[in-house]
Amino acid sequence: MAEPRFSVVIPAYNAGAFLAEALESVTRQETALAYEIIVVDDGSSDDTAAIASGFAGVRLLRQANGGVARARNCGIAAARSELILFLDADDRAEPGRFARQADFMLAHPEIDLSFGNWTVENEPGSYLARYGLAGPPARFVELAAPLDRLLADGCFVPTSTVAVRRPALLAAGGFPEDRRYAEDYALWLALAAVGRFAFVDAPLAWYRTTANQRLTRSADTYLGVVVTLREALVRHGAALEPAVAARAGARYAAAVDALLRHDWAYGGRARVRARLLALAPFLPDELRRKYLLASLMPGVVPRTARHVLNGARRLARGN
Fold it and tell me: For residues 302 and 319, what is the distance between their CA atoms, to the nearest angstrom?
């Protein structure tokens, strides 16, 4: 068997309902390059492993449940090639992705990471356009100042469209395993600080929004963004242009506000006080004052807010 020119890494947790679709989208790709498919079963309790085993050529790795970051890192460590393409188990690779993206990366060794647009289930329009990104759909172009863009505009790199060099991943330490959300954002920021990115304004993957395992907004969701932005601003904030630093700082403040608002509504005064202590000294003064005052309110107020939020969500769903 020929040595693979690239490795497709698919983390999977209780993905039995969708994994076959993802794998079919991979095995139907037309490319002259040899490649390997690695599925990492992250402690599933359903038939994920059996489905993966049913596809010829799939390397199945199994681990105790440790989260998507650990699963992806397991796949990266096991890969036999120097180029990694990611796909989540409930997404699909668009036809032609591998030939287009792998060929580009192999022809352009100066590029560390490439990504593309993706089609979002039930959401019309261009995903990348939401972040002000536009380019020719027929070819990859280099992204200028990727670190500045990621800090100022947010995480616009869709993980299921990424191709990245394995040495760069290993040098960056892989996906951070200490958070349940924004682990991909943290890695893209680390890579953008030292490497070069390119993108194509054409869909390379289809993103499923109705999968059960998609995260709802929770404390883990908000905390992941807060921790990731705080780390990046501590490391790179002093070197940023003033306009970029201002936008990144505003995004960090908004993320902290969302986390504290969630804590206040769902955890009450004690959780807010604990979070204020944990976030110091990286807590904007305005938010410190705002939530210190909120933590002095009677306990019935957060409970009422929680009921109002839940009622609003039910109305939005039409329940």
Answer: 23
Q: How confident is the model at residue 212 (pLDDT cuts 50, 70, 90)?
A: very low
Strand partners, 93: 205
Share the mean pLDDT of the chain: 92
The answer to whether residue 298 scores a pLDDT higher than 70 is no
Packing angle of the helix pair 242-279, 219-236 (nearest 10 deg): 130
Which two three-digit tokens encode residue 186? 């943290």
Q: Where are the domains of the chain?
A: 6-207, 219-317
Q: What is the pLDDT of residue 215?
A: 43
Six-digit token string for 1: 């068997």
pLDDT in tens, 56-103: 999 999 999 999 999 999 999 999 999 999 999 999 999 999 999 999
d(CA 303, CA 37): 48
Other residues' Cβ atoms within 10 Å of the Cβ of residue 94 = 21
The CATH number of the structural domain formed by 6-207 is 3.90.550.10
